[in-house]
Amino acid sequence: MAGSLLARAAVALTLIFAPLAAIAEADEFEIGLVTKVDEAGGKIFIKHGPLRKFEMEGMTMAFRAADPKMLKAVKPGDKVRFVPDRIDGQFTVTKIEKAR
Ligand SMILES: [Cu+2]
């Protein structure tokens, strides 16, 4: 009995939190313009607008590429959608894709 109650509670929690997670997921992408790719340094320079997540003004800055494949996937002049994060104190791009 206790098991089925736990299972039901787990289902209820999933139903409550799944939509919230979906909203957070949709919000995390930012728009930017790739200005430079430093393959040796593993960095992508992006001109971005204000990033509320970091209380940061719009600027051009270097982000560490979380995955080396990203360095080949974009090039200067590309308009991109990207997810910035701060990992071990370093600004990092965790997802990046060309924006249409
Ligand atoms: Cu910045």
What does this structure look like?
With 100 residues, this protein is an alpha+beta fold. It is 30% helix and 40% strand. It has two helices and five strands; from the N terminus they run αβββαββ. The protein has helices at 2-27, 70-73; strands at residues 30-38, 43-48, 59-65, 79-87, 90-98. The protein has a five-stranded mixed β-barrel. A hairpin with a 2-residue loop joins β4 (79-87) and β5 (90-98). It is elongated. The mean pLDDT is 87. The protein binds copper (II) ion (CU). Copper (II) ion binds at residues 48, 56, 59, 61.
Q: Which ions, cofactors or small ligands are bound in this entry?
A: copper (II) ion
What percentage of residues falls in helices of 4 or more residues? 25-40%
Q: What would you call the quaternary organization?
A: single chain
Shape: elongated
The string of secondary-structure elements, in order, is: HEEEHEE
Q: Please report which band the strand proportion falls in: under 5%, 5-15%, 15-25%, 25-35%, 35-45% or over 45%.
A: 35-45%
| Sheet with the most strands, sense and barrel status | 5 strands, mixed, barrel
Helix/strand structural class: alpha+beta
Alpha carbon gap, first and last residue: 52 Å
Q: Tell me the number of strands.
A: 5
Rg from alpha-carbon coordinates: 18 Å
Mean pLDDT: 87
Q: Which regions contain 5 or more consecutive residues with pLDDT less than 50? A: none
Counting H and I runs of at least 4 residues, what is the number of helices?
2
Strand arrangement across the biggest beta sheet: 1-2-3-5-4
